[in-house]
Amino acid sequence: MGVSDNTVGLALAVASSAFIGASFILKKIGLIRAGKGGVRAGGGGYTYLLEPLWWAGMMTMLLGEIANFIAYAFAPAVLVTPLGALSIIMSSLLAHFILKERLEKLGVLGCVSCIVGSVIVVIHAPQEHMPNSVEEIWNLAIQPGFLTYAAATLLIVAALVLFFEPRYGQTNIMIYLGICSSMGSLTVVSIKAIGVAIKLTLDGMNQVAYPHTWLFVIIAIICVVSQINYLNKALDTFDLAVVSPIYYVMFTTLTIVASGIMFKDWAGQSFSSIASEFCGLITILTGTIMLHTAKEKETGSSAALPWPLDRGSISWYISLGSDNLLKNVNEDYFTALQSSPAPIYKYPHESSQNYKGLLCETTGFHVSDSGIAGDFLYNALSPKVAPDVVFGPDDDGFQPLVDFDEAGSGEKSCLADWDCRDTEALFSLIKELRESYIEYQKKRAAEVDDARLKFEISTVLSKEGIEVCMVSSNGRPDEVKFAVPLLPPALDMDLAKLVPGCPWKLPQKIHLQAVFPISRSYSSVPPAPRLKLVSTPDLKSFFSVDDVKLPPWLDGMCMAEYLPNLEENLKMQVVEASASIGSRRRFIEALAPTFGRPLEADPIFCRRATVLSISGIFTFLVHFVIPLQFPKQQPVLTLQSSQHFNAQGIPIMSAPVNDYPWSPRWDPAEMVERIYDFLVDECQNFKRFCSDSLPQQK
To answer: Transmembrane segments in this chain: where (predicted)?
Structure first.
């Protein structure tokens, strides 16, 4: 008994998945290398065409696609397409070991689900009716059902390419993958037609003379080229472990829909077999979602370091010239950490010159103001070995890394269990050193012989999250700097929940920075400390600590007495800031009846809006910048002509305007009406200004 067509198709589909899964890794490495020497693919560049590894990935993918191509000639799409899940397993495992994109337990469970679902689909796959000619396939393609599907697909792709990609392509993964998957569904039906034509030709029934064969070839080429282009953009812009499963889910779903409409794969099957196939497909899709979720959890766990002491924060400098070193550092951590007031920067550190000639690679680090400095030393001959940490001469007393042999299990540094494959290893070490340094500074401050300082420390250090730092400067007495957290749990408030749709991914915090002088003899009441509020940068779009009026520091007052007044004052200001968003939103909504619907508006913090205005044949934009103190402060208006441009081709704009009638007691409708009346006259002045500003013809 010969081997069935389904068995041949199954073997080819499995081989195809192995090749395609490996090709993702090779192409990803090639794109990374190409991006270092030119414009990234995600930015519209094509330097990857000069990268050998990218071509190796393309050749591997070509082998996989050829195997996949032949598989469609032997087996139905409902069998071949879901088996592409095996390529996800292959790419995820290789990404885990080669690209250091960690595959967590949930990801492993996702792989198992994909395998189980694939087995179910294989067992219940339908036996396909083999067409007798390409013309027969063409007759299936021009049926009303498939023509409707093809037209809808092309319209969606056109909308994604022309409208959505320029605006959201770099931030929304669904744009690129939507184009790939939609074109891919048309690719599969075309490839299947070509595969059947080749098979029939080899069996003695020549299909080359049919024009339909070449039409399917042209369609397949166009679709494949589009897929490759947008898949490259997706791979270069987003993480492989995210691209691969989402692409598979969308591609598989659309392909099965297209094949089912065109070839009627389930005709003649029992209900139980069809239900089993769908269960297998759902199991596979669930597995890919698990893989995606596992990667999201890993990325979401990249939290920033604990909050710093303003400029007394840790700034870590990572050497740019050490590829072996940087392989231990995930780029996502730098992105997250740069968003906090304790940013991490990549910076060529000169301290490596101190070890010139030694067989080591060096990463320098420095804590500004606080003074801690040193180096991470890596053994160049044994890159898997944990680094040594060498501190500067100013921190001889700082010894955070205890002897592993003498330390208990609870005292050992993370260097004791160093894993060079762990992308979080260096980050964990940085965090551990910083926490140790905070405790070291607290102990130093507690040893200072200053009665006032001892009292402050005894009453304030019990507060959760407080930081202390000793500050020394030439020509000035030593000082102690306190950083006291003023947001949760102090205020029992979650700022993100106060703003609907808030985009903040990291906790937003406010600290009070208080600087006390030490080593002084006081003959009278000690002076008040220098006080300053500091906040995370993202918080400024909602609430500016610079606008907060600090309560006065009374004679003889201590921090424990001062903080409750400040926290109550701050809480009221935060509540007012939240209410101000509602006021700004109502103002923007009031623009529509008079100016028409805003062209653009800030939907979350309601700080900006733009409307289109027309005066006769003169059209111009009005940009509203709405202050945080709205309605106490009025919006700032800027007019921009849509018809006049300067010598550089930039639209002519007016100077900011805020000298129009205004009262915070007016309701939003009256505010907008007064602005409109003001602009009726102002637009004529702006029109003359635009005409006078035009470049003079020589």
So the answer is: 6-26, 53-74, 80-99, 106-126, 146-164, 176-198, 210-228, 240-263
Residue 592 inside a domain? The answer is: no
Read off the DSSP letter of residue 560: H
Distance, in Å, from the CA atom of 220 to the CA atom of 194, rounded to the nearest integer, reads 9
Question: In this predicted structure, what is the pLDDT of residue 209?
Answer: 76
- Averaged confidence pLDDT in the chain: 72
Q: Give the separation between CA 397 and CA 378, rounded to whole angstroms.
A: 23
Averaged pLDDT for residues 228-244? 77
- Residue at which a domain ends, from 442, 466, 496: 442
Q: Measured in Å, how far apart are the chain's first and last C-alpha atoms? A: 89
- Are 378 and 271 in the same domain? no
Q: What does the alpha-carbon distance between residue 29 and residue 35 come to, in Å, rounded to a whole number?
A: 10
pLDDT > 80? residue 534 = no
Cβ-contact 431, 411 below 8 angstroms: no
The answer to the question of residue 593 being in a domain is: no
Range of 679's domain? 607-693
Reported as a pLDDT band with limits 50, 70 and 90, residue 483 is confident
pLDDT in tens, 614-665: 877 788 889 999 888 888 889 999 999 888 888 778 888 888 988 888 898 9
At residue 156, the pLDDT reads 92
Return the pLDDT at 384. 64
Residues forming a β-bridge with 614: 619
> Which residues lie below 8 Å from residue 27, measured CB to CB, with a gap of 6+?
53, 54, 57, 58, 61, 232, 235
| Cα diameter, the chain | 111
Backbone phi, psi, residue 391, to 5°: -100, 160
Is residue 132 located within the same domain as residue 279?
yes
Residue 595 structure tokens: 């100016």
**275 dihedral zone (left: phi>0; alpha: psi -120 to 50; beta):** alpha
Which pLDDT tens digit goes with each residue over 312-342?
333 333 332 333 333 333 333 333 333 333 3
Give dist(CA 192, CA 69) in Å, integer: 7
Question: Does residue 582 lie within any of the structural domains?
Answer: no
In percent, the amount of the chain with pLDDT more than 70 equals: 67
Distance CA 64, CA 87 (A): 10
Task: Indicate if 204 and 150 belong to the same structural domain.
Answer: yes
Residue 587 covered by a domain: no
Q: Which residues of 383-406 are buried (b: 16+ CB within 10 A; e: fewer)?
A: eeebbebebbeebeebebbeeeee
| Pairing status of strand 345-346 against strand 314-318 | parallel
Same domain assignment for residues 58 and 99: yes
Q: What is residue 409's DSSP assignment?
A: T
547 and 664 housed in the same domain: no
Domain ends where: 521, 556, 576? 576
Total domains in the fold of the chain: 4
Query: Which residues contact residue 248 at a Cβ distance below 8 angstroms, ignoring those fewer than 6 apart?
Result: 84, 85, 87, 88, 288
State whether 512 and 396 are in the same domain: no
Q: Each residue of 543-573: pLDDT tens digit?
A: 777 777 788 888 777 777 888 888 888 778 7
Selection from 87, 82, 23, 32 nearest residue 56 by Cα: 23
Does residue 336 contact residue 302 with C-beta atoms inside 8 Å?
A: yes
Q: Which residue has the higher pLDDT, 414 or 490?
A: 414
Does pLDDT of 360 surpass 50?
Answer: no
Contacts of 60 (CB under 8 A, 6+ apart): 19, 20, 22, 23, 26
Q: Which of the residue ranges 48-57, 382-391, 441-450 would you say has the lowest mean pLDDT?
A: 382-391
Q: Residue 62: pLDDT above 50?
A: yes
Looking at the fold, whether 528 and 671 belong to one and the same domain comes out as no
Q: Are residues 435 and 453 in the same domain?
A: no
d(CA 685, CA 548): 38
